[in-house]
Specification:
The structure is a homodimer.
Chain A: H1 5-23, H2 28-31, H3 42-55, H4 57-67, H5 82-87, H6 90-110, E1 121-124, E2 128-131, H7 132-156, H8 170-173
Antiparallel strand pairs in A: 1-2
């Protein structure tokens, strides 16, 4: 169950295309509705993934490599994506997410990380000391947390339509866990 | 939030390709491990989706149209997929799922269901009376419940690797809900 860089990159490479195939040109009933006030639609989630590509993963990798524990990561803005999500179509957001992810994975490979780099330490504003391997594992698991979330947000739109089957559908029992 | 046949078919059309793009040729660490004894791996889930295409959705649609409430659906075997899942590669399972889904959606369209057909009633062995619209809505929501499940099963493999970030990842707080 340990961290493996190639296995991590394999997953990070595939998720943008999987979101694209699932969501592009899907009726807006599935993609623009949320789970109630203050919650995210599918479009908001893709906007958030874009914002993370820009401000979170690779920038933090570079902070660890350059400054180690001496420089705390910039805090992450959970609503930083809001403007872009509202202004762009879902199709454009999906395209932008794929483009940024490819660019960031190219840059990650260009770092030629060695096994010993993976244990280098950085400082998270709330979590304290973290390692580079933990940051990279979280990048992949974060894609999965939002795949988990969008399947729940979409299923929620059919909560009533499924009638008595709702009790058999695990996704409809999921109340969400934190924000996603 | 009501049932809509075209919106339902839109989703059912896309999910097999989304599973394929996400999972094909992914390292086995992600696809062959489960969440512990008696739980399903990603491969088991795709085997289950195949088994449902063969024995559940369209066969039950036909029972409703032909017999209404007078004939109870065949009970569903939750482990009916086990043999096929073990004997086939994940690549073959993904291909089979796509093939069967296309075939079933062609057959569904060929039924030319009218609005009044959607309220026709059938009899589920445990849930009692259900409607055709509820059955079709469940077909789509069931894809989402298993997308929700596989994202959780995969994230579980990195539960330790993410270190202190685990508390921020919603998918790692999800204990599952019933079996999926």
């Amino acid at each position: 169950m340990g961290f493996n860089l190639e296995e991590t990159i394999s997953l990070l490479t595939r998720t943008p295309a999987a979101f694209d195939v699932l969501l592009r040109d899907l009726p807006e009933m599935w993609t623009l509705r949320n789970e109630g006030e203050g919650t995210w639609s599918v479009s908001d989630v893709i906007g958030h993934l874009i914002y993370c590509e820009r401000t979170d993963w690779l920038p933090r990798v570079k902070v660890i490599l350059e400054f180690g524990e001496t420089k705390t990561f910039e805090p992450f803005d959970r609503w930083g994506h809001a403007k872009e999500s509202q202004e762009k179509s879902l199709g454009d957001l999906l395209h932008e997410f794929s483009r940024l992810r490819s660019e960031n994975l190219r840059a990650l490979r260009a770092l030629n990380l060695r096994a010993e780099d993976l244990s280098r330490r950085g400082r998270h504003p709330s979590l304290g000391v973290v390692t580079l391997a933990e940051l990279l594992a979280t990048w992949a698991a974060h894609d999965l947390t939002h795949l988990h979330q969008i399947s729940r947000v979409m299923a929620h739109q059919y909560r009533d339509a499924v009638g008595p089957w709702s009790q058999y559908l695990g996704v409809l029992q999921c109340a969400g866990h934190s924000s996603s």
